[in-house]
Amino acid sequence: MLETALFYLISLGVLASALGVVLTRSAVYSVLCLVSAMCFMAGLFVLLKAFLVATVLVLVYAGA
Q: Model pTM?
């Protein structure tokens, strides 16, 4: 039950961040929304117990 609730909460965060990337006018805010979307996606991979993929996602994509 807790995993399901976390999945829906993190998925909502991914969708909100992705919409923020597209809808914001400032490039700085768009990049910040993109970084938060990548971190939320890493959270989804953590729920799948794919810790290496989550770490690589944060270090490579969000870190760049």
A: 0.88
